Amino acid sequence: MKIRALAIDIDGTLTDKLRRLNFTAGELIRELEARNVMVILATGNALCVADTTSTFLGTSGALIAENGGIISYGDEVEYLASIDEIEKAYSFLKDRLVIREVTRNEYRKTEVALWRDYPVEEIRKILKDFRVEVVDTKFAIHIKSPDVSKGRALEMVARRAGISMQEVAAIGDSSNDTDMLEKAGLSISIGSYLKDVADYTTESEYGEGGVEALKIVMNHI
């Protein structure tokens, strides 16, 4: 089946380890759009970051932000989780650890993101009595609702666009991309981190791996 849409992570997939955008990857995304493949940015970052990146890249698809907690269809934004339990857990955590919020955390509406100053297992242990999920994306540690994910949000976006999940490709590099790759008809892992759930694995990591992955998608449209 031909690919009609692509869901792709941003940090570590379209960027280098310093989060600088790979320009070749950007050119390939514009080529996919020119060939009528709807590109959906799916990120753990805040919506404002996804929106700005989409503008600069020229993507036409919905935006999935905060690990599936938010979907933006342009003028219409859906919030798929409440931040109430997250804030309770975060307050509890602050009383026990000296933690630092990531930049632009004030723009997040459904989760809290922290710098990776402590092992994710330690934070999970402290918050075990809260109904939250703690995820390490290699760039930050996210405290989020267990009811949302990139994969679930992607299913909603595809359904609204009238596209089957078998017609969707997904590219990602970290644990928060797992179910997105599992649900997609074509899945590509940046490097070997998600090789167990991916149809293809790139040799390179970060943005160079993103270029490899985008070329694979090109061969399926």
How would you describe what is shown here?
The protein has about 220 residues and is an alpha/beta fold. The protein folds into two domains: about 5-80 and about 150-220, HAD superfamily/HAD-like (Rossmann fold, 3-Layer(aba) Sandwich), CATH 3.40.50.1000; about 85-145, Hypothetical Protein Ta0175, Chain: A, domain 2 (Alpha-Beta Complex). Helix content is about 35%, strand content about 20%. It is built from seven helices and eleven strands. It has helices at about 25-35, 45-55, 85-95, 120-125, 150-160, 180-185, 205-220, and strands at about 5-10, 40, 65, 70, 75-80, 110-115, 135, 140-145, 170, 185-190, 200. It has an eight-stranded mixed beta sheet with strand order 5-4-3-2-1-9-10-11, sandwiched between helices. A three-stranded antiparallel beta sheet has the order 6-8-7, covered by helices on one side. Helix 1 (about 25-35) packs parallel to helix 7 (about 205-220). The mean pLDDT is about 95.
What are the salient characteristics of this protein?
single chain; about 220 residues; alpha/beta; Rossmann fold; Hypothetical Protein Ta0175, Chain: A, domain 2; 2 domains; 8-stranded mixed β-sheet; 3-stranded antiparallel β-sheet; 7 helices
Poorly predicted ranges (pLDDT <50, ≥5 residues)?
none
Order of strands in the sheet with most strands: 5-4-3-2-1-9-10-11
The name of the CATH superfamily of the largest domain reads: HAD superfamily/HAD-like
Largest sheet: 8 strands, mixed
Question: Average pLDDT, to the nearest integer?
Answer: 97
Percent helix, as a range, is 25-40%
